[in-house]
Design brief:
mainly alpha, 2 helices, 92% helix
Length: 71
């Protein structure tokens, strides 16, 4: 079950990179001095990336726990 642990860690790491990317995109939008509506639109554009990355992180951590449980 070692492959399950390492595969889950890789999936979780990919999700973490996506979360960092979404944080960077929102920070750039905040520092750009956009109006309230434009900032809202920018955040809404980043939301699918944020939720998808969070999903990948959770699935990866579940795979790691499952691999440790079955080992």
């Amino acid at each position: 079950m070692q492959w399950l642990v390492w595969g889950g860690a890789l999936v979780s790491l990919i999700g973490l990179c996506g979360l960092v990317l979404s944080i960077v995109k929102v920070a750039k939008a905040r520092n750009a001095g956009l109006s309230d509506e434009d900032l809202r639109a920018a955040v809404q554009k980043v939301m699918p990336l944020n939720l998808g990355s969070l999903f990948l992180s959770v699935i990866g951590l579940m795979l790691v726990i499952l691999g440790l449980f079955l080992a």
